[in-house]
Request: fold
Amino acid sequence: MGRQWGCDNQARGFTAGRVRAAEGGNVNEQSQKMEITVNGEKHQVTADPEQSLLTVLRDHLGLTGAKYGCGEAQCGACTVLLDGKAARSCVTPLSSVKARAVTTVEGLEKDGKLHPVQEAFLAEDAMQCGYCITGMIMTGVSLMNRNPKPTESEIRRTFEGNVCRCGSHPRILAALRRAAASGEAGEAAKEGAE
Amino acid sequence: MSEKQTPLRIDGYEEEIEAERYELREGPAYRFGVARRDLFRALGAGLLVVAVAPASDTRPAEAAAAPQQESGGGGGQRRGGAGRGAGGAPQEIAAWLHIGEDGTVTAYSGKVEVGQNARTSLAQAVAEELNVPLASVRMVLGDTDLTPYDAGTFGSRTTPAMAPQMRRAAVAARETLLDLAAEQMKVARGDLVAAEGKVVHAASQQARGYGELTRGQKLTKQIEGEVALTPPDRWTVAGKSAPKVNARDIVTGKHQYTSDIRRPGMLHGKVLRPAAYGATLVSLDASAAEKMPGVVVVRDGDFVGVAAPGSSHDANLALFALKAEWKAPTDAPAAKDLFPLLKQPTEGGRGQNDARGSVADGLASAAHKFERTYTVAYIAHAPLEPRAAVAEWGADGRLTVWTGTQRPFGVRGELAQAFSLPEEKVRVIVPDTGSGYGGKHTGEAAIEAARLAKAAGKPVKLVWTREEEFTWAYFRPAGVIEVTSGVAADGTITAWEFHNYNSGGSGLRPVYDIANQRCAFHPARSPLRQGSYRALASTANHFAREMQVDEMARAVKMDPLALRLKNLKDERMRAVLQAAADGFGWGKAKPAEGRGFGIAGGFEKGGYVANCVEVSVEPGSGNVRLRRVVTAFECGAIVNPEHLENQVEGAVIQAIGGALFEAIDFADGRIGNPYFSMYRLPRFSDVPPDMKTVLVDRKDLPSAGAGEAPMVALAPAIGAAIFDACGVRLRALPLAPKGVPKDAKA
Reply:
């Protein structure tokens, strides 16, 4: 039997162990009821604990701001925050989320006000097709939570794992510089922590 | 429940795609299949303006000029066409524009938004001529039920061909509104001014909104003849930067790409892929998958797929539960055998062959002769949003598919053929898509999702994995290019013979004025499925040509810029070369040790580009890094400077990959590097710290497209700079995937 295509490296890893049980037709036995906190709201999810946080967010909760790009933590399109730190939701098993607070791009807006990093992307028109942008923004928020005034080389290093195939890099860098210069991203991080 | 039916006819699914997909030519004449009252039913009362254009304006120029290259498309009545005009020339409806009773302005075009910012630039065109704020224009794009027929978003045609149609419709609407206002206000038409969505009569201080003027009416206007458009030097909306019109939806995650769409009762689909290209299914045991709750397994010939409730993870579980046995061909070619294969002669291909003067005479008079071979690897588009589709069958047997494609009407045709449906029973809707770069001309995912949805009786979403996108889409063609040339001691290029095998005919002819030349394109049997790509063959042909020119300049000890200018009459080409050189300080300084400078230029689809670059070649590893790039670009009158700069920068950054390291590896009917962890894409560390873009605005020239041309000159500029840095002449794209080879001849 040939290798089955149509499934990611990573998804293959997730599913390999689940298939034996699934073959018996008892796929539902793998599903568990779990509670996760997303954007400050508690959600009851009945799902396979080994499935990726990305598919839970997108398919179970309808939060589609995090995107699928590669399934192997190589492109950053799926980036969300776990307790304020960037995480690749495509390789984050649901079971590992536990009580950690999940933040998606949908949760950045506060009282109709965008996060300073979002505002900076708008101000620089830092996008073409836009598919990578929510992942870029979440990576940027994470960076500024940790370090509100990152240097150029810190910015470049942090974003090495994020792919923009359209080549909007110069504008994305400009947006991040703008957000860093305004200092507002750090303020937003403090508020978020309170 | 497994379903066995008569084999599905999926035309275009297995078929080999043409080397130059944008040369597609559609049927000869069209009929307008939508009754105007139907349109009003859909749009509401108000004013409707329909812009009819000569068909050549709505099709790629290459296609109009080369009727013998007709391919694909096919006959049948195409909705949105208008039949033949009075002069006998085929005419088509290119766009329509509607002003509702509430003043809402909605413009409709069959073009799609894939990141090139067509939604913004077309809205600018409408806002300008109609005198309304940009924010008040709503653009409906790429919906086969709502927009006029369009061959597709490719060939850099949106700005030169579609934007003028939008303008014509908007001008006609404005003039009609002035007529209505004069009549309703009972004032002289000449005293009226249309501004900010209102018609104003200053003397009597009367003002009426556009919506108010159309209230209770169903007015239509069809425009066929010449319409005076605002010339670029009087533009007030276009010509200025406007941010992406739906940028806020992008940064908040609200925008729904195809892969984000959810429909009530929707299942998640997966397709079982063959173990190798050309493999046939020997046996399938789907019993385990069929026992999974709610899972639908479809087998239809060699098409096998599953649809599962819950999430794409659950669909994966069902897919993994399938036990399939495949028989794969044993003679599949490998990447290492590729180039001799491409040079094998084929029959019945549609080559190009141009000649003037005598190459033999030209070589005889040359002081230096060069016979060189260049190669170009297959590369992948790798759009960050892989192919995706959501398919839904209505109770009336009508099929609706949301999918990210550059050819909504083409995909509608594919679906109609696959399911033996008349085209009016199929609706294709293209949400603004996570990029394409010429890689999304086909409807594979749409057909697969529709097949699964048909069996399931429920809507199905299918999102290709990255591995599927790398394996089952198509590639930019690989190629072999042979160039024989001669140069006189004074730098005059005396002879030029150029043969491109397989990669395509775009940019085949030299930009230089050469008395003796012959250029030919030879199609080949490509071992991998290949198709269109941003700037397509032009990148390969520019690479070979400009590298050869650089080598000739070195041989006669001339500056490569000076040699180019000596052989070049085209003023636009000369101007961008000079602009790039000025921006770079070309000829003013020598590169530091281990660094090199390179220059190259060219034109494609109406855009002129030149690059000057500085690279470093690391001693030891041979790693090449791009340190500095200056790009000069000119595409006529600039529509949106910020977005143009973004396109140009993007094309340059994307071109870094194809120039230095991107290449598809294959053997045994499989792709060897179908993941981002194995296929290297340009990343932030590859973006040169010093990037400068010089935009040359020619308000006296019509606007050309800009999505493709800016990428063609980067690779040869880098190649020349590598030679300048370390004396190694590399003639294969990618140039240095593992650094400059140590054993390379200096």
The first helix of chain A runs from residue 9 to 23.
